[in-house]
Amino acid sequence: MASEGVRTWSWWRLLPWSIAAFLLLLPAVAMQYSDEVVWGPADFLIIGTLLAMVCGAIELAARTTTNLFYRAGVCLAVVTTFLLFWINAAVGMIGDEGNPANLMYAGVLFVALAGALLGRFRPAGMARAFFAAAGAHGLVALIALIAGLGASEPPGPVGILILNGFFVALWLLAGGLFFQAARDA
């Protein structure tokens, strides 16, 4: 029975690393079939480093706590952070990737990180940090919509609303998982 638990646990710990390897292989394969995907060694190095950081954070959470809500909250928060960074760097969330309005999302990441640090990575502090990140993300979307930032570029106002709403929901869900972890503690 104990060996089955170890095997399952090893499989679950291997899953994020396998997904990261798959994500890193996607552009390599796409480059073989399309001229639209052009990645250089620096692109693979940057994304590989980011994916290693994501998997390392998930691994650290798995090793430091047995609370499943906390682990799930870390996984969701880290993946959300990675997606926000990647989408912004690749295509931009407000207009294209070169639109300076996209720099406002650095403030969202700052709120999340500063809140986590101030909360000492404890569940209740993490919940507050990610609820605040959701609010900051919603504020960025509101500013973009009111100021008309990126309104004439894809994804347009409706796309900005939908994409940012998705991220606000992810931040809220992460905060909710940490809130539940705090209740269980």
Brief overview:
The chain has 185 residues and is mainly α. It contains six helices and no strands.
Secondary structure topology:
Elements: H1 2-33, H2 41-64, H3 68-90, H4 104-118, H5 123-147, H6 156-184
Helix pairs in contact: 1-2, 2-3, 3-6, 4-5, 5-6
What does this protein look like?
There is one protein chain. The chain is mainly alpha-helical and 185 residues long. The chain is built from six helices and no strands. It has helices at residues 2-33, 41-64, 68-90, 104-118, 123-147, 156-184. The longest helix has 32 residues, at 2-33.
Q: Report the average pLDDT across residues.
A: 90
- Please give the radius of gyration in angstroms: 18 Å
> What is the number of beta strands?
0
Main β sheet profile? none
Oligomer state equals: single chain
Q: What general form does the structure show? A: flat
- N-C termini distance: 27 Å
Instruction: Name the helix and strand elements from N-terminus to C-terminus, one letter apiece.
Output: HHHHHH
Helix count? 6
**Level of helix content?**
over 70%
Structural class: mainly alpha
Uncertain stretches: 1-8
Strand content: under 5%
Keywords:
single chain; 185 residues; mainly alpha; 6 helices; 0% strand; flat
